[in-house]
Amino acid sequence: MLDIEKVNGILIAPDGSFKSFGTYKDAPVSELTDDNFHDSSFKKDVANDEWFINLQKDIGIGYTGDTIHRQGADWASNGVVLMVHGGTGAGEFYGVLAPSQLSGDQRSLFEKNYINLQNQIEKNEVYFEATLFDEDGNYANDGLIFGLENFYNREHLAKGNVIVGRTR
Questions:
Q1: Secondary structure (3-state) at 106
Q2: Overall average pLDDT of the 67-79 stretch
Q3: Beta strand 18-21 with 93-99: parallel, antiparallel or unpaired?
Q4: Of 21, 67, 103, 166, which is most buried with the most CB atoms under 10 A?
């Protein structure tokens, strides 16, 4: 399950496998540890993991140690999805950097998780935004996509038993 509410982020490979990293904590910066920041928790939990090392080799992406937010567009242009849990309080959000064309396995993963993600958004009163990138690393839409439903509509993803934007 894509349980983003308690983690800093989730990286999703084209084959639908994924790895979560960090622990989300809504607290003043002075109370946070390396587990609560995107970059330090990514370096600790994912960067040296065999799963990610193999993903880099298979897809030809690199990890430079730069912020994962900056690298997310490059990863997305190479077929990898980066979900992050960011912000605090009323500014808390779930963000997605994704390829403009999700793989079949990524599509399936998102379709199986629509209700789960929607429940997390409603329960935690957060907003959802997504940015899609083409194979050249350019924006594949007119900017941010706000709202989980808009993301699913844009990507023609099923929400439960309903397919949005196409017929079976």
A1: helix
A2: 93
A3: unpaired
A4: 21
